[in-house]
Amino acid sequence: MTLLKTSNLKKYYGVNAEVKAVDGVDFTVESGEFVSVIGSSGSGKSTLLHLLGGLDRPTGGTIEVNGKQIYSMKDDELTIFRRRNIGFVFQSYNLVPVLNVEENILLPIQLDGNNPDMNFINNVIETLGLSEKRNAMPNQLSGGQQQRVAIARAIASKPAIVLADEPTGNLDSKSSMDVMGLLKVSGEKFAQTIVLITHNPEISQMADRTIHIEDGRIVGRAAGGEGR
Fold first, then answer.
1. Which domain does 140 fall in, by range?
2. How many CB atoms lie within 10 A of CB 207?
3. Does residue 24 form part of some domain?
4. pTM of the predicted protein model
5. Which of 150, 169, 171, 158 is nearest to 101 (CA)?
6. How many domains does the chain have?
7. Which end of the chain has fewer beta carbons closer than 10 Å to its terminal beta carbon, N or C?
8. Distance (Å, whole) CA 51 – CA 7
């Protein structure tokens, strides 16, 4: 089942559209798939992720997430849809410093007024190796542990898709590979659809499929991280 689809997606900046950050992108992501989008700095990959997540409106084209044209929605409707259907993992962990690990993971669910599925939450916490840290505060965690909490938070509400923007950018190489391994394992275990943005070929190879973007355009596609 196709979970995400873009059609002629564009994002231009400037009075005369002199910066074409995303320039006519077409691609699809299937349910349960782990896709990496790789490109150099300034290639448009982060802009693309922000568009996919409903964080920025495109200049042209369409995006469907879980069968919904997200940019046909009004801002309030889009905010609710995004909270319920899209999980985000960013380079900066964005944890709330006054909340412990479990409280940070549960926060988006509670903000939506829902009761968390604690059996599922406990499974996620265990899978990501956080069982002994659930009462710890963010400042008591290493960078890798904080990013694991961010991944758990993104998965906890059972979103249709998780979007990860350079999630290992602040980590050393060992922590990066550990976090990526856990992201992949948790994605498979919980049948989670993941789109990962990265500039790192090693990281991109962990995905099922790689899309290579430069100058706002897709310049290559490959299975298993090959063919960059």
1. 2-223
2. 26
3. yes
4. 0.90
5. 150
6. 1
7. N
8. 12
